[in-house]
Request: fold
Amino acid sequence: MRNLLIICGLVFGAFAINSSEGQQAGAPVILQASTPTPAAPPSARATPAAASSDALSLLQEMKASNAATIEKQEAALQTLDALQKAAEEMKIYSKRG
Reply:
């Protein structure tokens, strides 16, 4: 009985953590694709060195954004793994009687 209470507490805690992020459990995570900036007209284009530095800064921003997204996804996967483990333990304990 005590183990069941501990498991229920873990499950409710995981749901509380998930709901504190503002998402419902099971709700799909929708990410907007990053859109490139429109190309400037030929007369207004910058020099090749400036264009390459702008492209480099854009790539660095995209890399940082992707890293943040990956961290969020890893955290979500860890939460889901914990929930799955708790659910499996609950199934085992419920079969025991």
